[in-house]
Amino acid sequence: MFDIGFSELVVIGVVALIVIGPERLPKVARTAGHLYGRLQRYVTTVKSDISREIQLDEMRKAGQSFKASIESAASGVEQQATVVDEYLRKEASNVDKVMAAMATTMSERPPSETLPVTPAPDHHVAAQQSLPLDEPDQNPAPQSGKSA
Predict the structure, then answer these.
(1) What are φ and ψ of residue 91, in 5° steps?
(2) Which of 2, 10, 140, 146 is the most buried (most CB within 10 A)?
(3) 80-91 pLDDT, tens per residue?
(4) Residue 16 class from Cβ within 10 Å (0-12 exposed, 13-18 middle, 19+ buried)?
(5) pTM reported for the whole predicted model
(6) Are 20 and 28 within 8 A, CB to CB?
(7) In this structure, which long-range contacts are made by residues 74-83, counting pairs with CB atoms below 8 Å and at least 24 apart in sequence?
(8) 17 near 25, Cβ under 8 Å?
(9) Does an H or E element contain 116, and which?
């Protein structure tokens, strides 16, 4: 705190011995030591309070910047959601229009122009008919157990 060397302390001690006297010098030195300790504790407390306030201020600034970035991201998401919502509403409207047009076209068509409904082909029957394994063999193998 103070830049005091050893020679300066000796000069202060000699002056204090002459001014205060040898009887009261130990008591004054003890009191000066206690006051110096209190001063150091006070300075340390003030330094820690200032440091704590600086940290709190930094935390507030970080919190505000975080809040601003979150709000910015939320507004971006809301804008995108609005765009998607409008697109989906437009597409749903288009689908409704197409369905309504198809319904009016189908209701206006006379029954003679309607397409006949044909049943779907049975895939199992067609597959069974076209398998080469079901056809009779042209060259049947000999049935006897003996070979020639």
Answers:
(1) -65, -40
(2) 10
(3) 999 999 999 999
(4) middle
(5) 0.44
(6) yes
(7) none
(8) yes
(9) none
* Buried b / exposed e along 31-58 (16+ C-beta atoms within 10 A): eeeeeeeeeeeeeeeeeeeeeeeeeeee
Count helices and strands (H / E) in the chain: 3, 0
- Per residue in 3-32, pLDDT (tens digit) is 778 888 889 888 888 888 888 888 988 998
pLDDT in tens, 91-103: 999 999 999 988 8
CA distance 22 to 16: 9
**Residue 146 has which token pair?**
């003996």
Average pLDDT value for residue range 50-58: 97
Cα 64 to Cα 45: distance, rounded to the nearest angstrom:
28
User: Residue 94 in contact with residue 88, Cβ under 8 Å?
Assistant: no
The pLDDT assigned to 126 comes to 47
* Paired tokens of 64: 């505000």
So where are the chain's domains?
6-107
Listed residue (102, 100, 80) closest to 92, CA to CA: 100
| Torsion of Cα atoms, 119 then 121 then 125 then 130, to 10° | 150
Q: Are 16 and 25 in contact (CB under 8 A)?
A: yes
User: 17 near 28, Cβ under 8 Å?
Assistant: no
